[in-house]
Specification:
Helices cover 26% and strands 38% of the residues. It has two helices and seven strands, in the order H-E-E-E-E-E-E-E-H. The protein has a seven-stranded antiparallel β-sheet. The protein starts with a helix and ends with a helix.
Length: 115
């Protein structure tokens, strides 16, 4: 687990390409970067940047857990959703269940570090 988190952190510190799920279920590529303190996630789609503080992330849902997510987006077993303060959320879609679970696990660990 520690090695998986180490690789994840290395990737997101320089920028990791992810697919963000839009309300209609389509996906848009984005660049995901975390700051050096791992306290803020920056998502960049074209010229738009959205910053998410890890302290605002309330939960991370994936797979069957997605049934509990308060969203109207069309999500499937390849998705992970970060639920934030104010019932805001952002969902990502991954090419495989393994990729989905690696991302979800690492985000849960990083989120717990900020509690």
């Amino acid at each position: 687990m520690q090695a998986m988190v180490k690789v994840f952190v290395k990737e997101v510190r320089v920028g990791k390409r992810l697919d963000v799920v839009l309300d209609d279920g389509s996906v848009v590529p984005c660049n995901c970067i975390m700051d050096s303190n791992l306290s803020t996630i920056s998502l960049q789609v074209c010229d738009i940047v959205r910053n998410i503080s890890m302290t605002d992330v309330l939960d991370v849902f994936s797979g069957k857990e997605l049934e509990r997510v308060p969203t109207t987006k069309r999500l499937d077993e390849l998705c992970v959703t970060l639920v934030m303060v104010g019932e805001r959320c952002v969902s990502f879609k991954f090419p495989s269940i393994l990729d989905r679970e690696n991302f979800a696990s690492c985000m849960k660990i990083l989120r717990l570090a900020w509690e």
